[in-house]
Amino acid sequence: MRIQETLTMYEKLNILTDAAKYDVACTSSGTSRRNDGTGMGSCEQSGICHSFSADGRCISLLKILFTNECIYDCKYCVNRRTNDVVRTSFTPDEICTLTMEFYRRNYIEGLFLSSGILKSPDYTMELIYAALYKLRTECGFQGYIHVKAIPGADSELIRRVGFLADRMSVNLELPTAESLKILAPHKTRKKILTPMRLVQNGMEENRQELALYRHAPRFVPAGQSTQMIIGATPESDYQIMQVTQSLYQKFDLKRVFFSAFVHVNEDAHLPARSDEGPPLLREHRLYQADWLLRYYHFRAEELLSEEEPNFNVLFDPKCNWALKHLEYFPVEVNQADYKTLLRVPGIGYKSASRIVKARRLGTLTYEDLKKMGVVLKRAVYFITCEGKMMYPVKFTEESIARNLLASGERLPKEVVHMGYQQLSLFDDVRFGGGLGEKGIYMQ
User: Fold this and answer.
1) Is residue 430 part of a domain?
2) Is the pLDDT of residue 376 over 90?
């Protein structure tokens, strides 16, 4: 498909922002790139787009593809080479113009740049590097940049881009090498993991360099992430969580993102089209489990097993684990250590910290726990205060499960009702209390 050279920049923007909507790996935080007074933009430590800062602000970024032209024919991808869609591409100058003009109008505070593969991985990575280099050096942009590393690109190109970006990510695409072979035969697990390892090693070397030279250039200071498509292939939740856990352990990732499979192509190797749409509840459960791995000291094998390989649709993973392990409960909140409190449904990591600090000053009551943010309608079945439960409970899995179901499982309305679309730069997204990244309810 020939790139359309007669399109205006606005027309290109419409096409390439729409083409980027299926890439969800752009929740980012943890960087501290600051304005040194010589350029425009800054990036505070609180977070970038699809995340929330300490004062509750939603920070936005411009999320686009460099090009939707692609030499690959991944069966699940809307931009695969055999699809009859309008193809276009930005130039490095256009990327800079868009980013700076959107920033000046206060629409964005950063850039998320992904791309199809134009001609070759090296050629595409060179164009991305040229755009970022000009943006940083000539335009003086010091805001947040998240860029996708192209599998198969030269390692030196990836290294150079790493010194210009705050976060890099390489999409794992699918959970297993077997699925990749079927749905994305032009990609291999080795090609995907090689740049991931390169970024990891580069970050470690940079940390050592910064320990000696405080003003040394920073390499991917906000870390790296990846994304998996969920529901396009038959892997169980257990397999997906095992892969996720392995990625965190072996590649020091900041985040693993899960993207519910969206049926945009017709192919015999893809699941049949469903009236129910993308498996958003499954995606939601995987995010909740991912939260448990990263913040609650759980392991994948504790949450699922080969005998029970998929998450319960009625209860979140933490609550389901507690129901299956009643031998550890009830927990006395005035004595239990921090890690034990984390395993109690209704107690999040913030409220667990508050409990540990507050009980140094006196004995806690149920009213105190409520003020600390503990969700008592869940926690009451699993805790005691001064040896007493809040009210008599028949301590069996069936009885507690029935009571929990009666109280209602809280799901974000975005999961229940959302259509699959990219957030507009003008959307004002507000989640209620108790929601984390991607609206995950996890306490």
Assistant:
1) no
2) yes
